[in-house]
């Protein structure tokens, strides 16, 4: 049985990550298979309307190619249109994202679990005490690794002191039993003073405290399950489960000359004993600079500016990285299931979404909306590269799943025996929804176009702050509006003869806004469309109310060349 070594980082414009589990074809063999169709939209009313076209790549495992729309019935002033992007995106040179790193290795020699050893940790005597010092191997931003040189000979060491210990806190396990957990927060000695005891105490209360359902540990484990085993285990090169979680706070971005500013990370190699740089702890790493940011001289853990800079983002990062920690254990360690990066990141971002209100963090959607609205809406869901666009894209797709299908779907994605698209489809099935991925894509496109309408109940993004109950907790998730949002960038649409329109990618949608429809106005379009692409025509009035909504499947488009939508309301 092999192991995946997961190196999960919360970062700002970090760009050196590649997944080894790209399971979807990037063939462009179908890009030349296109046809011209005619779309007629008839307005048979006395009202004016806006029309939108959403194209969905139903063959989500391959590229589709570019879509072109022309019309002889529309004013030439609207021809040769090039999209202009909204200017109201938050100005931010350091956009938050969470890249994932994978490496190969092997779980070594199964062994019999020593029940005596397992029983011996029931007292949960902490390994450390406050005031203890320890030298940690830490990521060196100058090389993007644990070494300070390209020859991998000098490990980056950080001397740290245990500044806060929360010990023997009762927790509920995934099997319904109870156990204890201890949290150790270490601060690098060279940043102590910038990071204060008040900050550490506050962070500790947010992650683990006495009581039920009142901290990140409880919220996240009640959704996904345990983060690691207790006691000994069957493999010889995994660390002992001592029921402790460690956090090291240090200046991750020291010597970082790029635009990539790291917020924090989880690296599964520290769960093992056979790596030179393993700290042999179940642990996270957090950046001291962003954690200690103040507003007007005052520090508040719920503070972050509109670009996402501030300690609130660090708090959200802990929930995000904790999801990665659990997913590594539940998905790969226990079952041997490889984890696609896009699935891993989507689940972690949705955890941020779920727990934000509980943690007193303002809407986490906002810091991702600008990227999604301006660029990310047409990017593929089931593909990963280390760009901020892919984070926003996966987040908005996951947010759609959460608001329409519930938290249980994400529990099952993390815990079921599948990966990628199949993990989503099987999770939906186990929660009572028989929906294929290509249908999810088109429903998502519909939700995006109608996100400015709180009364649209078919495929909603907006619930005016919806309450979702799972695992004994009720969570409030924020509404999403990418069409008419006064604070953040609204969705960028492509137009007729749009030279800037990209190719339709793998599992992706692309959004066009057709011309407004006046009374008794009929417009005819010629659309060059690749095979495998479906088309949804949505008609809305000036208030955002949906008047017509018609989806033409890829098979229908392949077998016919003329399509009509009539506005009758």
Q: Explain this structure to me?
A:
The protein is α+β, with helices and mostly antiparallel strands and 569 residues long. The chain is built from 12 helices and 19 strands. It has helices spanning 115-120, 197-207, 216-224, 288-291, 311-333, 341-359, 366-374, 388-405, 407-415, 420-430, 437-449, 554-559, and strands spanning 2-12, 34-43, 50-57, 68-70, 96-97, 100-106, 133-137, 157-172, 178-188, 244-250, 261-267, 283-287, 466-470, 473-477, 509-513, 522-530, 533-540, 546-552, 562-567. Strands 1, 5, 6, 7, 8, 9, 10, 11 and 12 form a 9-stranded mixed beta sheet that branches. Strands 4-16-2-19 form a 4-stranded mixed beta sheet, with no helix packed on it. A 4-stranded antiparallel beta sheet has the order 15-3-17-18. A hairpin with a 2-residue loop joins strand 13 (466-470) and strand 14. The radius of gyration is 25 Å and the shape is elongated. The N and C termini lie far apart (61 Å). Mean pLDDT is 81; it is low at 12-31, 76-105 and 111-124.
């Amino acid at each position: 049985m092999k192991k995946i070594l997961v190196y999960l980082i919360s970062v700002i414009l970090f760009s050196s990550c590649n997944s080894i589990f790209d399971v979807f074809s990037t063939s462009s063999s179908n890009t030349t298979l296109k046809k011209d169709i005619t779309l007629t939209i008839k307005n048979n009313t006395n009202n004016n309307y806006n029309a939108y076209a959403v194209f969905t790549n139903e063959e989500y495992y391959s590229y589709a190619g570019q879509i072109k729309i022309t019309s002889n019935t529309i004013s030439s002033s609207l021809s040769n249109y090039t999209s202009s992007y909204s200017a109201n995106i938050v100005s931010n040179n350091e956009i938050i994202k969470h890249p994932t790193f994978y490496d190969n290795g092997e779980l070594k020699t199964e062994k019999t679990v020593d029940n005596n050893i397992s029983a011996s940790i029931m007292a949960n005597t902490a390994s450390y005490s406050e005031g203890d010092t320890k030298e940690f191997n830490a990521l060196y931003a100058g090389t993007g690794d644990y070494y300070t040189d390209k020859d991998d000979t000098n490990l980056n060491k950080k001397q740290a002191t245990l500044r806060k210990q929360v010990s023997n806190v009762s927790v509920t396990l995934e099997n319904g039993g109870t156990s204890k957990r201890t949290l150790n927060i270490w601060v690098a000695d060279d940043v102590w003073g910038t990071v204060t005891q008040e900050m550490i105490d506050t962070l500790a209360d947010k992650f683990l405290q006495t009581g039920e359902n009142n901290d990140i540990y409880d919220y996240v484990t009640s959704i996904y399950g345990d983060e690691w085993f207790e006691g000994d285990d069957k493999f010889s090169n995994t660390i002992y489960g001592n029921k402790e979680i460690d956090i090291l706070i240090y200046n991750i971005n020291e010597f970082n000359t790029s635009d990539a500013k790291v917020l924090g990370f989880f690296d599964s190699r520290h769960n093992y004993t056979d790596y030179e740089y393993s700290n042999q702890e179940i642990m996270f790493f957090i950046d001291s600079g962003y954690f200690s940011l103040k507003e007007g001289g005052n520090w508040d853990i719920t503070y972050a500016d509109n670009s996402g800079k501030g300690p609130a983002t660090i708090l959200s990062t802990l929930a995000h990285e904790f999801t990665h920690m659990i997913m590594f254990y539940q998905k790969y360690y226990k079952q041997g299931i490889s984890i696609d990066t896009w699935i891993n990141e989507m689940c972690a971002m949705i955890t941020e979404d779920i727990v934000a209100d509980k943690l007193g963090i303002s809407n986490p959607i906002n810091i991702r909306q600008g990227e999604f609205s301006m660029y990310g809406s047409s990017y593929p869901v089931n593909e990963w590269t280390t760009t901020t666009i892919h984070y926003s894209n996966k987040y908005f797709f996951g947010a759609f799943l959460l608001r329409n299908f519930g938290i249980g779907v994400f529990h099952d994605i993390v815990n079921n025996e599948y990966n990628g698209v199949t993990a989503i489809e099987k999770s939906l099935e186990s929660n009572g929804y028989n929906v294929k991925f290509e249908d999810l894509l088109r429903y998502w496109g519909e939700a995006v176009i109608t996100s400015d309408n709180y009364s649209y109940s078919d495929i909603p993004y907006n619930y005016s702050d919806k309450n979702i109950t799972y695992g004994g907790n009720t969570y409030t998730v924020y509404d999403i509006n990418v069409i008419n949002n006064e604070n953040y960038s609204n969705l960028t649409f492509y137009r007729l003869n749009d030279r800037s329109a990209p190719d339709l990618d793998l599992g992706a949608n692309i959004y066009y806004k057709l011309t407004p429809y006046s009374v008794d106005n009929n417009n005819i379009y010629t659309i060059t469309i690749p095979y495998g692409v479906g088309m949804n025509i949505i008609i809305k009035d000036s208030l955002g109310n949906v008047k017509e909504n018609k989806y033409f499947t890829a098979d229908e488009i392949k077998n016919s060349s003329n399509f009509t939508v009539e506005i009758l309301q």
